[in-house]
Specification:
The structure is a homodimer of 221-residue chains. With 221 residues, chain A is α/β, with parallel strands linked by helices. In chain A, helix 3 links the parallel strand 3 and strand 4. Chain A contains 8 helices and 8 strands; from the N terminus they run E-H-E-H-E-H-E-H-E-E-H-H-E-H-E-H. Chain A has a single domain, classed as P-loop containing nucleotide triphosphate hydrolases (Rossmann fold, 3-Layer(aba) Sandwich), CATH 3.40.50.300. Chain A starts with a strand and ends with a helix. Chain A has a 7-stranded parallel beta sheet with strand order 4-3-5-2-6-7-8, with helices on both faces. Chain A is globular, with a radius of gyration of 17 Å. In chain A, helix 1 packs parallel to helix 4 and helix 2 crosses helix 8. Chains A and B meet through strand 1, helix 1 and helix 5 of A and strand 1, helix 1 and helix 5 of B. Strand 1 of chain A pairs antiparallel with strand 1 of chain B, so a sheet runs across the interface.
Chain lengths: 221, 221
């Protein structure tokens, strides 16, 4: 019989997330938690963002999936370090898993670490990983009602990337409506449109990430 | 402090799911658990399927969402009974929630009840609700790798509906590859293509559902 103390798990996770954050801060590494539904385009976005960032920053990726090492393999060919976590059924990354993945990286040689979470618009919201930036990727093919229907995910978002914007002409997605819902739940969140498949909006997205890291560095010192 | 016994929860849920199934069986109501990612198009599909089914069967819908009654409202205008469950944070429906929703329905006046689960490709997989048919809705915009990456969801699927097929020309989705992955995990599962938004494939999908219920009725007696 397995005994799980629900409240203790979250407490312990937050302690571990604080530890991760301290380790990253000390090494000057900006942690970015990338969240979103399955198939919202998180990995494809990284495949496009990394070439745009690589000459400006030293980047690594921690990939979280239930099964397979597909995503880490997709990142590896880009020439940046990647670590795959297989959660074996768990619906979200947690700070302990990320700590183990961080052990496999040489933090002193890095400026930014993406933590691509398991595709899930619910469970991943509650578990801090040690990130300094929480970015939710929402594919416009998911519909403009998703912000209202999954509030915990968006409430603590630092940014929402509206991905697959190339498909806007073929869907009923109302950008203004989605933006209004985001504004209500997370007034400070940046909202960017991007089309990872075609590359539209990727350079702006890369500039924005570099800017966020610079602001963090300036504030840190 | 809250103590949660993980193994006990699943056991208790399966007992409750058996009870739900017995209640539905006795009333001759075919339970359909509708699963899939957020924005895979479950509700839109129901909006199109119900008018196609309504003259052939008496249908009701149980809607599961973290927040809002949007989905049940969308169903109500179709003139069939609907019950909204708000899980208040829980990432999946469970059998107890569905039992409460069943209390709000007059089962003796029904032939089929859809249980539209919370949008989630992970957590919903483990919780039986009392259904006789598990249907996974996979939007082709999510990518053809999702079956391999989220195996628990597909392993116990009775059918996979490849939705948003109208967007196939604008994406890289490989239908053959997805079908091969489904075949490997769930060799018995039916795979249907449908485009809920345009209505393409909806009549075939309705026929298929009627056929599955008839086969179940024949087997029951």
């Amino acid at each position: 019989m397995q005994i799980v103390l629900a409240s203790k798990i979250l407490e312990a996770n937050e302690r571990n997330a604080d530890d991760n954050q301290a380790r990253l801060d000390e090494a000057g590494v900006y942690g970015v938690n990338l969240l979103g539904s399955p198939g919202s385009g998180k990995t494809t976005l990284l495949e496009k963002l990394i070439p745009a960032l690589k000459d400006r920053m030293r980047v690594a990726v921690i990939e979280g999936d239930l099964a397979t090492a597909r995503d880490a393999e997709r990142i590896e060919v880009l020439g940046v370090p990647s670590v795959q976590i297989n959660t074996e059924g768990a619906c979200h990354l947690d700070a302990t898993m990320v700590a183990a993945a961080m052990d496999a990286l040489d933090l002193d040689t890095l400026d930014m670490v993406f933590m691509e979470n398991v595709g899930n618009l619910v469970c991943t919201a509650g578990f801090l990983l040690g990130e300094r930036l929480r970015v939710v990727v929402l594919s416009i093919t998911e519909g403009d009602d998703k912000v209202e229907k999954y509030p915990p995910m968006f409430r603590h978002a630092d940014a929402v990337l509206l991905n697959k914007a190339d498909l806007l002409p073929y869907t009923d997605f109302d950008v203004k409506k989605a933006e209004a819902h985001i504004k209500r739940l997370a007034p400070e969140a940046d909202v960017l449109q991007v089309a990872a498949r075609t590359g539209d909006g990727v350079p702006a997205c890369a500039d924005w990430l570099v800017g966020r890291r610079e602001a963090w560095m300036a504030q840190k010192t």
